[in-house]
Design brief:
It is found in: Cytoplasm. It holds the Pfam family SecB. The chain has 176 residues and is an alpha+beta fold. The protein has a domain of 117 residues: SecB-like (Bacterial Protein-export protein SecB, Roll).
Length: 176
């Protein structure tokens, strides 16, 4: 009997600690997956047979999006598009969407925006880079390796841009 009493009394019975333990922040990737992949070589095979007079032009673009899929699950997608052109003709166009499902709870709204716009894309992006390079290699063209991206700087730039737009809108409303 004494053992049962020790077990029951050894746990914390402080009512203030129980909510803290239940509300501990959670951030964990549940799954990373390739959501979509597209590869086009619209001028093949002719463009591949022509000697190139100059270095091809490479255009790299990407964007980040997120959506809640359940109460505590967020799907974050990083889309990357690589277009390689010789003159006006496209040699290759590759677009991939790499996504991650993240369990996120107990994080207030403002830090949650940081998590979904900086931390989640930083985790998903290396998979996107590898998949785009792999697709290009499988198409038998030299792969374009996406550069490292600082999602923190991009997020801060978007916040500054949104704030500037809000100030311009407020100024325009005051003039009316």
């Amino acid at each position: 009997m004494a053992e049962n009493e020790n077990i029951q009394t050894s746990g914390s019975t402080d009512p203030q600690q129980a909510p803290e333990q239940q509300e501990a922040p959670v951030f964990q990737m549940q799954r990373c997956y390739l959501k979509d992949a597209s590869l086009e070589m619209p001028h093949a095979p002719e463009i591949l047979m022509q000697p190139q007079q100059e270095a091809p032009q490479v255009d790299i673009q990407f964007e980040v999006s997120q959506r809640a899929i359940q109460a505590d699950l967020i799907d974050v997608t990083v889309r990357g598009t690589v277009t390689v052109k010789a003159g006006e003709k496209a040699i290759i166009l590759v677009e991939c969407k790499q996504s991650g499902i993240f369990a996120v709870r107990g994080i207030p709204a403002e830090p949650l925006q940081h998590v979904t716009n900086v931390l989640c894309p930083s985790i998903v992006y290396p998979y996107l880079r590898a998949n785009i390079a792999d697709l290009m290699t499988r198409a038998n063209v030299p792969p374009v390796h996406l550069p490292e991206v600082n999602f923190e700087i991009l997020y801060q730039q978007r916040l500054a841009q949104a704030q500037a737009e809000a100030q311009q809108q407020a100024a325009a409303n005051q003039q009316n």
